[in-house]
Amino acid sequence: MGEQDQDKEAYGKPAKYDPSFRGPIRNRSCTDIICCVLFFLFILGYIAVGILAWVYGDPKQVLYPRNSTGAYCGIGENKEKPYLLYFNIFSCVLNTNIIAIAQNGLKCPTPQQVLQSLQQELCPSFLLPSTPALGRCFPWTNSTVPELPGISNTSISQSISGLLDSLNARDISVKIFEDFAQSWYWILIALGLALVLSLLFILLLRLVAGPLVFVLIIGVLGVLAYGIYHCWEEYRVLRDKGASISQLGFTTNLSAYRNVQETWLAALIILAVLEGVLLLMLIFLRQRICIAIALLKEASRAVGYIMSTMFYPLVTFALLLVCIAYWAIIALFLATSGQPQYVFWAPNSSLPGCEKVPMNTSCDPMEQVNSSCPGLMCVFQGYQSTGLAQRSLFNLQIYAVLGLFWTINWVLALGQCVLAGAFASFYWAFHKPRDIPTFPLGSAFLRTLRYHTGSLAFGALILTLVQIARVILEYIDHKLRGAQNPLTRCILCCFKCCLWCLEKFIKFLNRNAYIMIAIYGKNFCVSAKNAFMLLMRNIVRVVVLDKVTDLLLFFGKLLVVGGVGVLSFFFFTGRIPSLGKTFENPQLNYYWLPIMVSILGAYLIASGFFSVFGMCVDTLFLCFLEDLERNDGSADRPYYMSKSLLKILGKKNKGTPGDKKRKK
């Protein structure tokens, strides 16, 4: 015990008893004021970037096609002309690449407006039956294609077909819309079922958490035992055949290693070691597993008392939607900032009379082109890169990306701190539910915004910098993928792995720091340090609770998402005859569409509910550890934990006065 006490003291001294402490401190002051001011200044700059993008940007460049003079089709003077016609579609389909379309829109080197006579090759020399796609006219794939010198009809038809396949999503979008119109209410029913299942699973954990956890643990042990048996059977068969790795040698065909006995022997040893470790943990850590189960039951009880917390993810989702939408609008306007530029262009610059014309130089599309060069015209090329917004475009985009990450991480931090404050109010209420505040969630929300915006911004900024570094590293890896050698790839992989681990650690540290901020109201650094020290003094309990909670929540998600997915599949495919007699099954073009939407919605709903429950478990766990260090069960220092936890730990409240006598 002496060595254990010394090890614990290496991570700080246990929390001391404070007679004035009765849960989340109400008399607190603002924390991390410098970071709060920095965050507000950054938000003002973010708003200024949005205004600048709004002034200089023009999203019509993306939404509407332009003709050769740069005029928009479908708006203004061309309101009655919504479609763009390519006079020579073959110059488009044979010279278009998808990267150029993504970066600059669909632009073809072909006359797009009748400005001069047919003799000057500015009118179409032939017409094909066409269909509109993204505001542009493209020929039908079954149209009769005229013979052109040097170009085969097959290549032209394939090019047109490929262009239509990549751009014309009109028919598919109409069918998808029809499917949603036929099945939207059934999708809502499926999502409602997912909500009910998630809520019931969490609320019923107070009754079935213990048996369910042990069933899941036994199930994992059973799966490992079957894996050991299967590996032994495969090993025995291959051993009798004499199949050895010495006969196979080294090969890059990994599937070939399935046919050698050493592969199955190695798998057998690994599974046997895992089985043994889990059995030993089940035997020697059974008390800590029981503590984890009791905390899960207590978390279910806390959610039952503060039901409003289950719907707080809707607030987080709405705020995240605002952050993402604002960034998307800024990115769109920044990408479309600039004035159109026009240059001289001719179908064949080598013809007589064209050698004196400076091709690809700027011109005015409103002026008539007088030249002896056949087919010379002033065509749209792109958008200028000069001007205040254009010169700083890259910097503004970087600022917007930083704003996206920082605001998203701040919103997530706000949700964690608010939920932690609400659930901490539950734990530190001695008489439950009498001592629980009237509006614990609302009080925690206002308290967090008023005092701890800076602390949340501080933690979110640290996480944002790591995430930005990961994005930059991924970008470098993508750019150097074709030219890098194996050593460079190994170094980049190591860096990416280190940053991934660092991000996970910071998320873990921030989460527990926000819990301590919600309880004690101290700044981010002090809260992070206290949370880390408290967890390190109880590291075994931390690991056991984390794994038990992960196993249980994974099973819950699997139950909710799998149940909704199976029911949706059987219903939308018409495989429930009895239900089809009562309700008419929707007639769908793509039956998988409502199934996938139902599954995705069920996953999001389950993730939202279980994230609240996970935050509740983590908050109660830290409060439980603080309770153990602060109190001793005496009349002056009674424990706040539930009777089940007291029973597991072999502790009890002694000589509690009548007004403090615990009520279950």
Automatic annotation (TrEMBL):
Main location: membrane
Keyword Glycoprotein (UniProt): yes
Subcellular location as annotated: Apical cell membrane; Cell membrane; Membrane
Range of residues in the leader sequence: none
Spans traversing the lipid bilayer: 33-56, 184-205, 212-229, 264-285, 305-335, 398-430, 451-473, 513-536, 548-572, 592-625
GO terms of molecular function: antiporter activity; thiamine pyrophosphate transmembrane transporter activity
Record InterPro entries: Choline_transptr-like
S-adenosyl-L-methionine as UniProt keyword: no
GO biological process: choline transport
UniProtKB keywords: Antiport, Cell membrane, Glycoprotein, Membrane, Transmembrane, Transmembrane helix, Transport
Recorded topology in the membrane: Multi-pass membrane protein
Reaction(s) this enzyme catalyzes, per UniProt: thiamine diphosphate(out) = thiamine diphosphate(in); choline(out) + n H(+)(in) = choline(in) + n H(+)(out)
Function: Choline transporter that plays a role in the choline-acetylcholine system and is required to the efferent innervation of hair cells in the olivocochlear bundle for the maintenance of physiological function of outer hair cells and the protection of hair cells from acoustic injury. Also described as a thiamine pyrophosphate transporter in colon, may mediate the absorption of microbiota-generated thiamine pyrophosphate and contribute to host thiamine (vitamin B1) homeostasis.
Protein name listed in UniProt: Choline transporter-like protein
